Amino acid sequence: MSKYFQATASAPVNIACIKYWGKRDTKLILPTNSSLSVTLSQDHLRSTTTSRADPSFTEDTIWLNGKLDEIKPGGRLSTCIDAMRRAREEVEDADPKAEKFSQCKVHICSYNNFPTAAGLASSASGFAALVYSLAKLYQLPASPKDLSIIARQGSGSACRSLFGGFVAWREGTAPDGSDSFAEQVAPEIAWSDMHALICVVSDDKKGTSSTAGMQRTVETSTLFEQRKAVVPGRMRAITEAIHKRDFDQFAEITMKDSNSFHAVALDTDPPIFYLNDVSRAIIAIVTEYNRVSLDAGGKRKAAYTFDAGPNAVIYAPKENIKEIVEMIVEYFPQESFKDTFALFGKEDVRGRLVRG
Ligand code: DP6
């Protein structure tokens, strides 16, 4: 048997508070605005990827959840694999003692421990795990920041999954994308009281993909220019809120940015509707929950956010999570949800959404 090289890595999903929506370069995946997300830390939503290089392999091959997938020349998968292979070649060129296996074909197996079609960000965790596993396979000296530049070219949001905690993706200005990378704003332990409750409203595959939807927005929405103008201020304000652990400010900005993203989706021609009636009812519940607190002279207690689908993510301090779950159970029959669980922070409330 020939000598082979193999490595496994895993990466979690991240959920944006300031949304990435729009590319200024579709090939390099350079965004029209910076974004900021929270990487979920529990084990429910992860991609795990094993990469193997073997002289006996005749072509690069990938299996996603056990199914063979196509690696199109010039496509996102081959862009990431080629970039990592080139980095290995550089290591081999620089060090005559380095093992020479950069020219071996690779076989890659990737698994999500959640339904790929669940409308949750599987491309983010998927490309982050892919790039990370190849970096281990090729024993590259690359930093997470360097890897984020490559993962970004697989799927924009994937660059943020290479870091834990609160993560910013800087839009950058360089035409080659060399300054469009992710970096950690604060580790999870800096605000360990922060929890995320994920309400899987629907696990249908979404109608309009993020990639197609955001491009259509860039081309047709007039409201989009206004969104681009307000995002930099939001990035500064939410970063400050995270550093101060000011949930009220964090919540206000997160909800505004989710609404602004869905507004530009609606302003797209033809319009894109990602939210459904259950999503809108969740917005109403969280708004009312916050209003009661604000009217009593208190602060916001929860923040909703929605990506390119109807599923809600509710951020809240740990002490409010129980109340929020009870409220959701009160207003919705259990069948409204496929699954609901908290992922950021230590407490797992999955399975408690049962009436009775
Ligand atoms: C609404 O990263 O999936 O989740 O770069 O085309 O692969 P591509 O898009 P993708 O878009 C994610 C959009 C979003 C917002 C976000 O995660 O910031």
- Specify the number of helices: 8
Beta-strand residue percentage: 15-25%
Find the count of extended strands (DSSP E, 2+ residues). 15
**What is the H/E order?**
EEEEEEEEHEHHEEEHHHHEEHE
The N- to C-terminal Cα distance equals 59 Å
Gross morphology is: elongated
Which small compounds were modeled alongside the protein? ligand DP6
What is the structural class?
alpha+beta
Low-pLDDT sequence parts: 341-356
Strand order of the largest sheet: 1-6-9-7-8
Average pLDDT for all residues: 90
Radius of gyration in whole Å, from Cα? 21 Å
- Residues in helix, %: 25-40%
Largest sheet: 5 strands, mixed
Report on the architecture of this protein.
The structure is a single chain. With 356 residues, this protein is an alpha+beta fold. It contains eight helices and 15 strands. The strands form four sheets. A five-stranded mixed β-sheet has the order 1-6-9-7-8, covered by helices on one side. The protein has a four-stranded antiparallel β-sheet with strand order 2-5-10-11. A four-stranded antiparallel β-sheet has the order 13-14-12-15. It is elongated, with a radius of gyration of 21 Å. Bound molecules: ligand DP6. Residues 16, 19-21, 29, 35, 121, 123, 155-157, 210-211, 307-308 line the site of ligand DP6. Ligand DP6 binds at residues 16, 19-21, 29, 35, 121, 123, 155-157, 210-211, 307-308. Its EC number is 4.1.1.33. InterPro entries: GHMP_kinase_C_sf, Mev_decarb, Mev_diP_decarb, MVD-like_N, Mvd1_C, Ribosomal_Su5_D2-typ_SF, Ribsml_uS5_D2-typ_fold_subgr.
